[in-house]
């Protein structure tokens, strides 16, 4: 099998389809019929990662927050706090919070100066 790479032993070297292990002696390609000896696969470690995006795509579920709705949320008027901007000394800053770490830890507060557009954050 000249086309095989170390990580693609479970896939058909002809068409790329996942091989089917219906026998203890052979792995067959359900699409093109290629047969590979099971001894070529025996003892190799298999890892497979499934992301939330993969699950949503498979189940045809729309994400809760789309890029467009996130952009709209960024354009919403933010709350104002009486804090001085460290860059230009403007007396008020806009702010918003996000939970970036685990739920049992504090939120991160993001500050944005409406005067000079300086941005910084604090973990609370």
UniProtKB/TrEMBL annotation:
Q: Where is the TFIIS-type domain?
A: 81-121
Please tell me one Gene Ontology term that the record gives under cellular component: RNA polymerase I complex
The protein's matches in InterPro entries, at most eight in alphabetical order, are given as: Rpa12/Rpb9/Rpc10/TFS, Zn_ribbon_RPA12_C, Znf_TFIIS
Q: PROSITE patterns under this entry?
A: ZF_TFIIS_2
| Cellular compartments annotated | Nucleus, Nucleolus
Q: Which domain of life is it from?
A: Eukaryota
> Taking the first listed entry, what is the main subcellular location of this protein, grouped into a coarse class?
nucleus
Asked if the Swiss-Prot or TrEMBL record annotates the protein with the keyword Transcription, the reply is: yes
Which Gene Ontology terms cover its molecular function? DNA-directed RNA polymerase activity; nucleic acid binding; zinc ion binding
Residues in C4-type zinc fingers run 12-32
- An annotated GO BP: termination of RNA polymerase I transcription
Arranged from A to Z, the UniProt key words for this protein are: DNA-directed RNA polymerase, Metal-binding, Nucleus, Transcription, Zinc, Zinc-finger
Q: Which residues are Zn(2+) 1-binding?
A: 12, 15, 29, 32
Q: Where does Zn(2+) 2 bind?
A: 85, 88, 113, 116
- Family assignment from sequence similarity: Belongs to the archaeal rpoM/eukaryotic RPA12/RPB9/RPC11 RNA polymerase family.
The record's function comment reads: DNA-dependent RNA polymerase catalyzes the transcription of DNA into RNA using the four ribonucleoside triphosphates as substrates.
The name under which this protein is listed is DNA-directed RNA polymerase subunit
User: Taxonomic lineage of this organism?
Assistant: Eukaryota, Viridiplantae, Streptophyta, Embryophyta, Tracheophyta
């Amino acid at each position: 099998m000249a086309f095989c790479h170390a990580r693609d032993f479970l896939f058909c070297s002809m068409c790329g389809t996942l091989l089917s292990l219906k026998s203890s002696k052979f792995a067959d390609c359900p699409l093109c019929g290629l047969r590979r000896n099971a001894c070529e696969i025996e003892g190799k470690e298999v890892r497979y990662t499934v992301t939330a995006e993969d699950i949503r795509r498979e189940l045809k579920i729309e994400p809760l927050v789309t890029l467009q709705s996130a952009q709209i949320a960024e354009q919403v008027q933010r709350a104002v706090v009486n804090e001085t901007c460290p860059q230009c000394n403007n007396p008020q800053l806009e702010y918003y919070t996000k939970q970036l770490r685990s739920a049992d830890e504090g939120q991160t507060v993001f500050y944005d100066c409406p005067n000079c557009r300086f941005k910084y954050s604090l973990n609370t």
